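Q: Could you fold this chain for me?
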Amino acid sequence: MSQALLRISDLRLSIGGQAILRGVTLDVAAGEIAGVVGESGSGKSMTALSILGLTPKDAMVSGSIVFDGQQVCGDPGAARKLRGTAFGYVPQEPMTSLNPTMRIASQLTWPARLVGRMSLDAARARAIEMLRKMQIDDAERVMNAFPFELSGGLRQRVLLAQAFMLRPRLVIADEPTTALDVTVQAEVLALLQAAARNEDAAVLLITHSMGVVWRVCDRVHVMRYGEVVESGAARAILASPSHPYTRGLCDALPERAAHRTKILAA
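A: Sure. Below is the predicted structure, expressed as structure tokens.
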């Protein structure tokens, strides 16, 4: 495995005296897709927000988050400088994550100009390039559209394009297939894989589905109750999980449960 690009050690977070993260330890190597899997409330998204420096103001955070040798835990300024450039982010809800009052062109080019210091022409050219990489053939039409004029699948492709606009080294994708049908989910995951490979970016993929882990991840970190309970190569863990919770997630896969399910004839 390559040297860790992101290393989280003993990350703890509490809000109002309630522990949310209880010593999270995980890492992401350069060029890999690492999955973080667990049920709702296990701490997956809060871990992502901690990396990005976007935790609530009243959150108490301790531990270590080192990105490419730089400590960012407890330093919102350091995380802010990395967002958009070194860090890309794909939010989990494509139907509400884009500004409904702005055309797609503005939503892609404005951050690139502000954070990436790109000219308008360069930002527009990069946006069209990324939309086409997301297999949007009519990129010019999409650039001129408002979000409500696009399907959920197209909106998610726009969000993927936005995350990779400034060639980040790490993209955090927070359940990027939420609210999409199965066929579109598969397309979005394939596009995420291709973009990560073509743009030479590592990906931290947050999901509640072991099926998604099996499809795209090199390694997986299983979370429960704010802790990582098992980590390792994705295929190895799927083949032989050691923690009871991980076994439960694996057994919930439809293809594994099918042989235990009886369907009664009418």
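A (continued): The chain has one domain: 4-76+90-260.
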